[in-house]
Amino acid sequence: MKVGCFALVDPFSVMDHQLERIAGLGFKYADVTDNHPGGLLGNEFGFTGALSLDSNPADVQAMFDKHGLTISSVCAHANLLDASSPAVYGTVEILKAIRLAAAMGVSDVITTEGDPKTEWGHKLSDAERVFIVAEKLYEPVRLARALGVRVLLEPHGILTDSIDGMQAILDKLDNPDNLGVNMDTGNSWLGGADPVEMAKAFKEIIWHVHWKDLPADWEAKRGTMYGCGFGPIALDEGVIDIAGVFEVLKDGNAEYSTLEVGGDDNMLKSYTYLKSLGAE
Q1: Residue 70 forms beta bridges with which residues?
Q2: Model's pTM, two decimal places?
Q3: Which is nearest to 128 in space by CA: 92, 99, 158, 101?
Q4: How far apart are CA 103 and CA 98, in angstroms?
Q5: CB of 202 within 8 A of CB of 181?
Q6: Nearest to 195 by CA among 180, 171, 213
Q7: Where does 148-234 have alpha helices with state H?
Q8: DSSP annotation of 238
C-alpha cells in the first residue's frame, strides 16, 4: 500500500506551495483535497490551497507532475443531508469531481454525507437519511461508471461512521461494482465504530485509506462527533488500532492511502510507522 499526503499542509498557501511542501517531505503521492466549482477569490490572490473543479485537467496534472507527485484521489466530501442549494457542496460538485478525475486518469473520487447544518437536516429519520444520501449519489455513481471512475464513501457522518449505516447506503444504491469505501481510521473511531471491524466488514471494497490517530482525551467526543479533518498526533501515539487496520487491509485492494496528520514531525513519524508495518 502506497502512502501519500493530503494537500493542505500549510494554511493560506496556494496549491503549488502545498505540493512543493509535500514533495519536500519525501512523499510521492497526494490527493486533490480542497476544491470548489467555478472561480475563487483566494486562488486569484494567493491565499488558499483550493483547486477549481472547472480547472483544465491538464493544468492540474501538470502541477502535480512538476513536483513529481502522483494524484491518488480527488476529494469531493459533501453535505448530503441538508436540502439541495447552490450554496451547498453536493451532487453537482461530486459530478464535476468525477469528470475531473476521469480526465486525469485518477480512479477514485471520495465523498461522504457530512454533517447537516440545518434543523431540517438534523430532524431526518435514519430511513430518510439513507434515501436522501442515495438519491444524491445515484447520478454521480452512474456517471462514474460510464467514465471508469470509482466513488468511495468515507466514514464522516452519522450514517457512514457505522457499519450498518454504510451498508444501508450501499444497499440502497444496489451495490454497484464501482461504489466502494474509503476507510478512515480516525473518523470511524470518532463516530463510535471499531475501525478494525469496519475494515474487516468492507475489506473487499476498501480502495483507499485515510490514516489518522486521535488522543485519549477525544474519548468524550466519541459518538457525538462524526469526523475531523486531521489527527493532531502521530500514528501509534493515540487510542486507535492503526496496526490492526493495516493488518486487515495489507493484502486488500487499496493501492493508495493518505496521511491526514497535522505537523511535519507528526507526519514523518506516521510515515515511518506505516513503512514499519509494510507500507510503501
Answers
A1: 29
A2: 0.97
A3: 158
A4: 9
A5: yes
A6: 213
A7: 163-172, 185-190, 195-202
A8: S
Q: How many domains does the chain have?
A: 1
Tell me the mean pLDDT in the region 205-224: 97
pLDDT tens, residue by residue, 158-187: 999 999 999 999 999 999 999 999 999 999
The total of other beta-carbon atoms located within 10 Å of residue 251's CB is: 9
Residue range 212-216: mean pLDDT, rounded:
98
The pLDDT value recorded for residue 97 is 98
Query: Which set of grid coordinates corresponds to residue 121?
Result: 437536516
Dihedral of CA atoms 225, 233, 265, 12 in degrees, nearest 10, equals: 20
The residue segments making up the domain with residue 29 are 2-277
Span 256-265, pLDDT tens digits: 999 999 999 9
The closest of 214, 204, 76 to 151, measured between CA atoms, is 76
Beta strands in 185-280 (DSSP E): 206-211, 256-259
Place of cell 501509534: 236
C-alpha cell at 61: 496534472
- Over residues 102-139, the pLDDT tens digits come to 999 999 999 999 999 999 999 999 999 999 999 999 99
**CA distance linking residue 74 with residue 59, whole number of Å:** 15
Task: Kindly state the greatest CA–CA separation across the chain.
Answer: 48
